[in-house]
Design a protein that fits this description.
The protein has about 280 residues and is mainly β. It is built from three helices and 14 strands.
Amino acid sequence: MNLLQTRRSSLAKLFTSLSCIILLRSFSGTVIARAPQESSSQARAKLLWSQALEARGGCERLYAIRNVHIIQHGTLSFDLFRSTPTLLESLFVFPDKLWFWNDMRPSVFGLIIEVYDYDNHHHWTWPPLINPHEEILTKEPVGGSLLYSLLPYLPETKWLHPLPVAVTTEKIGLHKFEVVQTNVNDRRVDFAFDQKSHLPVRITYYDAGTYQNYRTTIQLSDYVEVNGIKVPQVLKYYDGSVYKLEVQFDVEFDPDLFTKPVSPEAGPKAWMKRRAV
């Protein structure tokens, strides 16, 4: 795993609309549009999704969130025999800004700091990018939104609304769970829900590559309530890495954080708003 792959992996770890089918028939010059009937599977999926949003804290609370600060403590395995402790601290400012500090020292991957500001197309990193043109963001983030990577913490926001498509039953370990397939900006994301708490125990992202399709699975556990919203304290990824989390919503942050290049001298708390002395 090289430095670029590590950057992408770190961002991926932090870090929906189904088109209606219109049936047109012409009778004596008259065009009649008919909406398709909703399947029982989709109806069940919508019900489970509604229950899940309520279990998380309700749409009113979810839609009121404007930023989220996350600290992840874990161990990064970069081959079969080598691993390193990692501290990943990130601040998402909705809908289009991200700052993160990924400390993998003393491994060869060292320290990575990045700022993404899709509103103003800025991208700053430490170590600095070799190609200065990469400091100008020209593409949308993965999944069409930075909020795509936040689905383990916030299943819906004011800016991102997964669309329930269908439901299946799947056995995970010794228990059966209902799995809701959703469409998130034309990408498939599945949520496996606990039948009693209605909280997700697993999220699966599906991505189409050039030569093959990819599936990324994240297990969620140890929920706590933060500002009226239930969030997991532990994430376990498909590669076996486990991260313990600290989550805060609507924190005060430095208003200049996204307007200047990053620096390691500023430290992992560079995002914080400075108090007047």
